[in-house]
Amino acid sequence: MTCQAAFGRIHVLEEMGGSLVGGAIKLIQDRKKNPVERDADLPPKPAGQTVASYQQGLKTLPEAIAKQIHDKVRVSWVLKGIGKCQEGYELTYDTPDGVAKVTPPHTPFTTR
């Protein structure tokens, strides 16, 4: 595989302007002279900056998700057994804090 095949757009920019930066500048100038009509089905472009990030960095999203589900997700738990009990069934796990037994809410099973 050639560099041109793997990095086609980079190759095109280098060809246009003699370098990556020169090609990017040339592309911007060409687009200003010959603007491409925006698809009418697309929503309007937002004013100002269109590329953004979180103020505290990319870690913001996974940290927010973790905060919302922290008590619903268990890591490093290994299911060791399933048994019947009065409430339906009981799951036995080996956890980092020792053995844990969980009785999930009753969910009827269906067979096909």
Short key terms for the protein model shown above:
112 residues; alpha+beta; three-stranded antiparallel beta sheet; 4 helices; 3 strands; 34% helix; 19% strand; elongated
Description of the molecule:
This protein is an alpha+beta fold and 112 residues long. It is built from four helices and three strands. The protein has helices at 3-6, 8-17, 20-33, 60-69, and strands at 78-85, 88-95, 98-102. The protein has a three-stranded antiparallel β-sheet with strand order 1-2-3, with no helix packed on it. It is elongated.
Mean pLDDT: 82
Kindly report how far apart the N and C termini lie: 51 Å
Pattern of helices and strands: HHHHEEE
Largest sheet entry: 3 strands, antiparallel
Write the layout of secondary structure elements.
Elements (H helix, E strand, L loop, with lengths): L2 H4 L1 H10 L2 H14 L26 H10 L8 E8 L2 E8 L2 E5 L10
Helix pairs in contact: 2-3
Concise description?
By secondary structure, the protein is of the alpha+beta class. 34% of the residues lie in helices and 19% in strands.
